[in-house]
Amino acid sequence: MKFKPQYCQVQDALSILVGKWKPIILLHLMSEGTMRYGETKKALVGITPKMLTSQLRELEEEGLISRKLYPEVPPKVEYSITEYGMTLEPILVAMHDWGTKHVIRKSEM
Amino acid sequence: MKFKPQYCQVQDALSILVGKWKPIILLHLMSEGTMRYGETKKALVGITPKMLTSQLRELEEEGLISRKLYPEVPPKVEYSITEYGMTLEPILVAMHDWGTKHVIRKSEM
DNA sequence: CTGCATCCGGGGGGATACTG
DNA sequence: CAGTATCCCCCCGGATGCAG
Question: Does B77 score more than 90 pLDDT?
């Protein structure tokens, strides 16, 4: 094994992904490319506007996604993943694979 | 891209790894195999006994690590990673790789 | 040596209502 | 359409002290 835990930056990756909706937002943007606010809201069943906005803002501040505002009426905002955001793909893929293989049976608890 | 976000279990993996010290504890146990309580405490600079215990307990409850108590005086407790815990290795490796490549410059902020 | 008990503060996240 | 504004609760994580 080639870990050097003492120099471990695992926490950095984790801190970026922590947030109830962040990983799934990133996955959506990775596969869809670009999505509008309402589009994302429909995709994330159960999310409140406040949460969606805050999660998007934090992802944007980290440089993982970009926000493009069209000065129109009605308003139009598009979110897309950045190159930097794409670097997280291997992690999300690993988590996605793990999640599908090791389904947690919380419904039985 | 082969994601199906609507069936996404990414959150499951994330929820298991969330905890200030969990990833690094798992990495240590993955590389060392077995560690005593005090050994782990020395490895995790700055952790308090309470936190170490709580994180270990939660990892144990998830079935990721196992706890072996030796009824001796003084007490001796050994923690080791389980097979189930090892299934998280790809995720932690991915996060570790990402972390070392994309070092976050928070010290400059 | 390996914990548990207690007190405490901050913030992530939920529900609901309102706005340019 | 794309968000704000408020209120509120839970629980993570820190500090300190005690115990078998």
Answer: yes
Total number of domains constituting chain B: 1
Contacts of B102 in chain A (CB under 8 A): 12, 84, 87
State pLDDT tens for residues A5-26: 555 678 889 999 999 999 999 9
A contacts of B100 (beta carbons < 8 Å): 7, 9
Residues of A with CB under 8 A from a CB of B: 1, 3, 5-14, 17-18, 20, 23-24, 27-28, 30-31, 43, 84, 87-88, 90-104
Q: Is residue A80 part of a domain?
A: yes
A72 lies in which domain range? Answer: 7-107
Q: Is the pLDDT of residue A109 over 90?
A: no
Helices (H), A1-109: 10-17, 22-32, 37-43, 49-61, 83-86, 89-101
pTM: 0.89
Question: Residue A49: helix, strand or coil by DSSP?
Answer: helix
Which CATH number belongs to the domain containing residue A61 in this structure?
Answer: 1.10.10.10
Structure tokens at B26: 């798992």
Strand C contacted by A38 CB (< 7 A): no
